[in-house]
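Why this split exists: single-chain examples teach little about how molecules sit against one another. For that reason, every record in the complexes split bundles all components of an assembly together and asks for one structure covering all of them. Below is a record exactly as it appears in the raw files.
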Amino acid sequence: MKQSIRAKQKGLGGLPLGIATLAAGCALLAGACSLLLDTSVTQCTRDKDCQSFAGTVCDVQDSVCVKPRDAGTNFAEAGAPVDAAADTCVGPAGCFSCAPSNESEIISHCTDTICVPFDNKRLTLMADDGSLRPLP
Amino acid sequence: MRCLRVFLCTLVTIGWLDTRPAAAADCADLPSPVFVTGSTAAKPILMQLARYLGSLAAPITIVYQGQGSCLGVDAVLSATLLQGTAVFSTWDSSGTEVKCDVSEVSPVVADIGVSDVFASTCFSLPGGLPTNVADFLGPVQAMTFVTRKGSPEMSISAEAAYNIFGFGNNSGVAPWDDETAIFKRDALSGTQQMIAAAIGVPAVKWRGTGTTGSSDLQNKLVGAMPVEKTLGILAADVAQDNRALLNILAYQHTGQRCGYYPDRDANSNEKQNVRDGHYAIWGPMHFLTRIDGNGVAIKRAAAEVIGYLAGTKTAPAQLDLVAFEAQHHVVSPCAMRVKRDRELGPMTPFTAASACGCYYEKMANGSTACTPCTRSSDCPVQTATCSYGYCESN
C-alpha cells in the first residue's frame, strides 16, 4: 500500500510537513515550485523536490514524496517499465541508473529535469475494452 | 498641353518600367552553384553556411528554393527539374538574401533535397532509397504541441493527442474538443508528419482547423478563443522564438508516466530532453543527394555543403554552426546522445566522434555546469574527453 510522506509526517506548528517544506522549498526552488503551486495536490515533480524528506523520492504519478520502495517499483521518473533483471541499475523512483542501451532504458533513465504528468484518466471516450478507439 | 501629355506619358512609361521585376542573375552563372530545395526549416542554417562558403577563395554558392520537405525528397529521387524567376535565394557575405533565376529553357536538377522527415515518410520505399541516393542526417529538430499563452494546460500525452487530432470535436479530452481552436498544418508538413508518427494518427486523417504554414498557424492560434481550448503544433524553433505568445506543452510519450519539455524546463534552451531521449518527438534534418559507388556525393561542392551540415566536416572558427544551431533551437548532431534510424523509431545511444553537448549547452543557455578544459588530461575520469573546450563523457 502506497503511503505518502505528506500523510505520515507533521511539520512545525502542527502544519503538515509537506506544506512547511513546500513553503521553504519555494524560496529555494522557484522554478519547481511554480509548478507545485499550480495544483493543491502536487507535492513534487522530481526527486530533488523531496530532498527535505530524508530517504524519499518523488512518485511522479501521485506527485508525492514516498520511500523508494513505494515509488512504483518498475517505473522510473520517466515512467517507462524498467528491465526487472537490471536490479542493480534501479535508481530513485525506479529510474534506470546505468548506461542505457535501448529505448526503454533511455526514456526511463534517471534525470533531474522537470516533468509534468498528463493524467490519461482525462480521456473519456475509449473503446469498450479500455483501449484507444479506432480512427474514423 | 502637348508638353504636359508628353511629360505624363513619360512618367507613365517610367512607372511601368519600374514596376517590372529587376532582372536577377542567372543562378547557373554564380560561382560553383549547389542547388538545394525542400524544407523551409533549413533556411537559417543554409544562410549561415552560405555566408562562409561564399567567402572562400574558391567560393561555393548555395542556391535555395524552399518548397516543403516531401518535395525536397522528390526533387532528388525523381530528378525533378527546377526553374523559375525570383524563387531561388542566395546570400551575400552579410547574410542579405539575393534572388536569382533559373530559366525555363535551362532548368536544373537539385543537388540536395532537404527534408524534416525520412524519405519513407513521404513515399513508399519498400526497398529503401535507390542505391545512387544517400540520406545524410543533419541537425535535430523537435516538434511541439503549443497553446495560446494563458492556457492553464501544461502537458499532453500521446493518447490524448490521438483523440484530439483523430476525433476533433468528439475527442472526449476536455478542454480540447473544439476544432475551431485546434490547429493543424497539412499532410505534407514535416511537423505534422513527425507528430503523426508519434501519436498514431496518419497525417492525412488529422482533424482541426487547417493552416498554410507555421506563421499562419501561430497567428490563428494566438487569435483563437477561448484560450483554454487552444492547441496547435509547431517546430520547436518557431515555438521557442514566440514564447511571449505561446506555451509549449510537456509531452508524455506512450509508455511514459510523465511529460517532458524539449528542454530541462519550460524556459531553458539546451534541449536536454531531446538530446538524451526523454522528449520523444524529434528527428534529424535530412540531406539527400546522389552518390557515386563510394558513397560520396557526385557533385564535390554538394559534398562540401553536406559535410558541414551533417557535422562530418570540421567547421573553422569563423563558421560556428554549433553556436548558431543552439541559438536557433535545433540540436547539432555532435550534441546528441541518442539516435534513431527511422521516423520515431527506437532510440539507441550515440556519442559523436567529437562530442559538443557541453559547448552546445553553453551556447544555448549562456552557461554550463561542465568542466572547461584545454586537453583531456584536464578532465575527470567520468568525463574524460576534452572536446569543444569542455570535458565530455565517452
